[in-house]
Amino acid sequence: MQILAFSDAALKEAITVLKNGGVIAHATETCYGLACDLREPLAVKKLFTIKQRPESQPVSGLFATVDIAKKWVVWNKKADELAKQYLPGPLTLILPIRPDAPAAIFPTLLVRETLGVRISSHKHAQKLAQEYGAPLTTTSANVHGKPNPYSAEDIVNQFADQEFKPDLILDSGTLPHVPPSTVINLTTDDDKTLRSGTIKL
Questions:
Q1: Smallest Cα–Cα separation from 135: which of 89, 104, 170, 95?
Q2: What pTM does this model have?
Q3: Which residues pair with 27 in a beta bridge?
Q4: Phi-psi label, residue 173: left if phi above 0, alpha if psi -120 to 50, beta otherwise
Q5: What are 140-193's pLDDT values in tens digits?
Q6: How many CA atoms lie within 13 A of 61 on its CB side?
């Protein structure tokens, strides 16, 4: 498991790892997250294996901007209202995947009809999403069921005895301990909040 302090050179290396089907850990505005190319089912399978995540629990997608996200999901009026108020920030909006999306994307090991959209306010996550130029997964960089990691050291400690580990950690230092993102399902009429985090709706 390679650890690189965040820099332009480290970012370039991380992008190479992602393009080769790898999984990286990086900082977000909540905790450290795991990223792989959301278009590549083998990369997504690798991420689920590393995280030991149940196959039925989808991961969200990290996008650089709302305008880019709109190319992949069906945006609606409520999403616009929330985005204007809270994005970029710790909010995940679950929306239908566009039938005419630029490519198939895989929030789980099976194709799904919806995707949680994240637009991170952390400058390093923003730069990663912008430079990569395609949807990345985003999910906390912990072993499933263990505490969220707020530093590269947390990740190293959690995966020390695990057979499968992230390929690379982009180290942005220790993050403040904050709650996870708020998750709201906008595919139903009642705009159901699935997880209440930093943002209270």
A1: 104
A2: 0.95
A3: 32
A4: left
A5: 999 999 999 999 999 999 999 999 999 999 999 999 999 999 999 999 877 788
A6: 33
